[in-house]
Amino acid sequence: MKYRIQVAGQEFSLLAMTWPVFVELLLQMLVGNIDQIMLSHYNQTAVAAVGNANQIMNTLILTFSVTSLAATILISQYLGAREPDRVQQVYTLATGMNLIISLVISAGLLLGVDGLFQLMQVPMEARPEARSYLLISTLSLPFQALMLTFSAFLRAHARMTVIMLSTGLINIINVVGNSMFIHGLGPLPQMGASGAALSTSLCRLAGMVMLMVAFFRSVPGASIRLSVLKPFPTSLLKRLLAIGLPAGGEGLSYNLSQSASLVFVNMMGTFAVTARMYSNMFAQVCYMLISAVSQAAAILVGYCIGAKDHELADRINRLVLRTFTPITLTITVLMAIFAKPLFSLFSDDPAVIALGQQVFLVEIVLEIGRCFNIVLVRNLQAVGDVKYPVTVGIISQWVIAVGVAYLLGIVFNLGLLGIWIAYALDENVRAIVFFLRWKKGGWKHLKTV
């Protein structure tokens, strides 16, 4: 079967690796959005507050991906090259780096939260709840950092099912916690956005513990030992940063550009912020499948690069694009057709529902570019071509996704619809550039492990 792939002396099933990642992403989306969904029955101001707070949190959490993405890439390449000693060093180095980074970020956020809200033009009526949500969530950032780190280790070893099961349990904890803390259960008071933040923090703690236990139990020879860093592997640290900073920088730039364009949306009023939040939530459903298969494919591409099998890496890339882009577009078209009842599930505001319908027509075009970007960026990172995606990403995201968004949304008064048109243009421009980059084949000559 074309979905069964032989690499580095092992046989892998792309579909068997994909479905646990898909379920994991689905559950992650629920964990990420369940606060807004459950708060939508509390009040719409809380939804806007958490939407702004989560934009900040998601951007900061991406800094942990600098180390996590690099760890996944290096571990998969070292496994393909059959160098277990290097793998052990990556475990310890990545864990220490993300723990230190998370503590520094948490301290900075606790001191600068009010300034961030002022910079983002968060509506005044949403600021009190946004502030309480963000401050409580900040305390759990070290748990989130370690959770992402151990998830990266398990992913590199193709332990997708373990991650999926852990995410499922986290989701259950979050739903139960929200039910208890948002509306109040028994003697517990109604805490609104603060309750949602408390529930999310407990989820991160539980997730960290479960993934650590899964790592040490399911990965042969797994250990975190400072002794493996003596003498300190300076060359490995440089390589980790050389891969991680550009690889994580692409995602970080994207989220920062989204935060910048959110400033424009905040200027349009709470109804636009709410419509944007629900639109993003539904958009995640559209690209979730191709995001899942691209993660599985990138692991296999990393193995191929470690084993010096460039032809197989190219074949995997083409297989994913040709098979899953049409599926993603079909899902998006269906969601655009049923946009009105979907948005009506979470809001009874006619302005929010109408705006959501308009946005999702543009979403169809946007997803064409996003499919190619998701697959090609991950595969370019997996082969070690990490600087090019972040360079193109920064230029396009800030010139088009922010600059054109301001022009269409504010100057030409197209509102959220204009901003979404700019997003679609950004995604498709980058898709063309990355496709040509991969097709040119320069990545076949890059130095790897």
What does this structure look like?
The protein has helices spanning about 15-40, 45-80, 85-120, 125-140, 140-155, 160-180, 195-220, 235-270, 270-305, 310-335, 340-345, 350-380, 385-410, 415-440, and strands at about 5, 10-15. With about 450 residues, the protein is mainly α. Helix content is about 80%, strand content about 0%. Strands 1-2 form a two-stranded antiparallel ribbon. Helix 3 (about 85-120) runs antiparallel to helix 4.
The ordered H/E elements are EEHHHHHHHHHHHHHH
Please state the average pLDDT score: 87
Question: Taking Cα atoms only, what radius of gyration do you get, to the nearest Å?
Answer: 21 Å
Q: Which segments are poorly predicted (pLDDT under 50) over 5 or more consecutive residues?
A: none
Helicity range: over 70%
State which percent range the strand residues make up. Answer: under 5%
What is the tally of beta strands? 2
Apparent shape: globular
Q: Helical region count?
A: 14
Query: Would you tell me the structural class of the helices and strands?
Result: mainly alpha
The strand order across the widest sheet is 1-2
In angstroms, what separates the terminal alpha carbons? 30 Å
Largest sheet: 2 strands, antiparallel
Characteristic key phrases:
transport, mainly alpha, two-stranded antiparallel ribbon, globular, cell membrane, YsiQ, MATE_fam
